[in-house]
Amino acid sequence: MARIGALEAGGTKMVLSVGTPEGEVLEREEIPTQGPQDCVDRMVEWFGSHNVDALGIGAFGPTGVNPSSSSYGKILETPKTAWRHFDFLSAFKPLGIPIGYDTDVNVACLGEVTYGSCKGLDTVVYLTVGTGIGAGVMVSGQLLHGMLHPEAGHILLEIQPGDEGNCVCPYHDRCFEGLAAGPSIEHRWGKKGFELADRPEVWDLESTYLAEGISTYVLCYSPQRIVLGGGVMKQTQLFPLVRKKVLENLNGYLVTPELADIDSYIVEAGCKGDQGVLGCIELGRRALEAARA
Ligand code: ADP
Ligand code: ZN
């Protein structure tokens, strides 16, 4: 039985796991994300000593995901300066095993398609609403790359009346992430999201921004289903609000069986927080299969 290594490389922590090709997680360890030199040697040693046959990496972006590009496997223009231009993928080459590499949100999307809420579908958007907002996109069975990869968390939205000046993105004055990720909620209301659970106005505004972003994804990617994950979506009262407002935004323009069953169209993650790890396992499994073909 093959042992597949999984590395979910996030801005705050690195989650290292070993799993089976069937998606059973056998071992797991978390280490804080420090500078690359501090944690990469440790991670290479961990996977080496855990006898993995292949590795799947889901990395924070922006990062090069196109194997034919010179930026493949490198961390690009990140605010985490120690990681800027770090050749992340190459650091794992001494393991001498097949490696699959993609963004953290693309692997979470893959996890949901393989093991979670989107089994059997081939065109799916996975949206995380946490410290940032990021969308992993699969189109016709392929995780979407391109020039770089989608950065759909930074699309521009219409500022709601009275909310001017509240966008916290250093690059944009009215982007989705800057208006609706966890830090933005905290900046606007002066408390963390989980402390605001009983303030309906917070979730009314939040759902308006979420629905505006999601309606745009519906129109641009035509997903068969949209999965919402990340810490902010623990406020599950958001789901019915978002579903209702997405339909209002579309205003009857699209008539499909999927939208007619909106509760099954905009859904919670089926992997219960493990979508990233499970997606990395699937990415590693695919790399192993390709190497053996
Ligand atoms: P990350 O995006 O860093 O991987 P999370 O998905 O856990 O991590 O997102 C963290 C963000 O989500 C923080 O801004 C936090 O305030 C917010 N958050 C976490 N739990 C909740 C909750 N129960 N309700 C609302 N917001 C939450
Ligand atoms: Zn932005």
UniProtKB/TrEMBL annotation:
Catalytic activity from the UniProt record: D-fructose + ATP = D-fructose 6-phosphate + ADP + H(+)
SUPFAM superfamilies membership: Actin-like ATPase domain
Alphabetical list of Gene3D superfamilies matching this protein: 3.30.420.40
InterPro entries: ATPase_NBD, Carb_Metab_Reg_Kinase/Isom, ROK, ROK_cs
Cofactor: Mg(2+)
Assigned keywords, A-Z: Kinase, Magnesium, Metal-binding, Transferase, Zinc
Gene Ontology molecular function, alphabetical: fructokinase activity; metal ion binding
Highest rank taxon of the organism: Bacteria
Pfam families: ROK (PF00480)
EC number: 2.7.1.4
Family: Belongs to the ROK (NagC/XylR) family.
PANTHER family tied to this protein: FRUCTOKINASE (PTHR42742:SF3), TRANSCRIPTIONAL REPRESSOR MPRA (PTHR42742)
Protein name, entry field: fructokinase
Lineage: Bacteria, Bacillati, Actinomycetota, Coriobacteriia, Coriobacteriales
